[in-house]
Amino acid sequence: MNSEIELPVPLQRCAFFLDLDGTLAALQPRPEQVFIPEKTLSSIHTLTQAGIPVAVVSGRRIDDIDHLVKPLQLPAGGIHGAERRDYSGQMHRLALDADLLTRVGAELGAAIESHPTLYLESKGMAFALHYRQAPELEDEARRIAETLVERYPQQLTLQPGKSVFELKPKGASKGAVIRTFMREAPFDGRVPVFLGDDLTDEAGFEVINEMGGLSIKIGEGSTVAQQRLESVEAVADWLCGLAEQAGNARVEQED
């Protein structure tokens, strides 16, 4: 896997979109145990200080993204694009009806009652059914999730991921949210670069490829991404190298 990936254009002409779990942060048994290394946060800060747009595009809620990247506050696409905070700080949401959310949550809770090793995460406008601690229940978790989507086909769509099945608002995807960001300043007119590790990131890779950008898959597995980095640690090193490049450019400009 290539740890010396080169950008297609000079750094100052790029815009970066970064997945979180499995890309910026190592996967953990439960979502609340995840953290982003300080080295990675420092590199992202340096890039933004150099005027290079960076957005986080994640399956997590934006509130959770903010907690993990603090003290930074970045443009973000949360819940696979069901919610978005643009560069100016304005929020945009593709929300499900409150009654439907309550009903789906109750039905999912009842469906997994006999499987205590399955973990149901409510994201406010979506749900994630985790089976990381019970891989033998993958088929059962899929059946439960598919049943709910079939019950509400106009409102919900299924998004498989690493040891998780997510039920999200129809129309939400990482590809769609990246495309929206790229229509707005300061992302517009730049070449997009997207790093991700999961099935949920493939829609983003497809959009990046269409736009002539750089798509980078983290880890193993089939993908439409153009390049690969082998691990979260390799991502940290690559971003650190970009940050050093950005820092050197700033020093030269000040001189």
TrEMBL record:
Its cofactor is Mg(2+). Its EC number is 3.1.3.12. One of its GO terms (molecular function) is trehalose-phosphatase activity. SUPFAM superfamilies: HAD-like (SSF56784). It is an enzyme of class 3 (hydrolase). NCBIfam families: HAD-SF-IIB (TIGR01484), T6PP (TIGR00685). This is Trehalose 6-phosphate phosphatase. It comes from Pseudomonas luteola. The lineage of its organism: Bacteria, Pseudomonadati, Pseudomonadota, Gammaproteobacteria, Pseudomonadales.
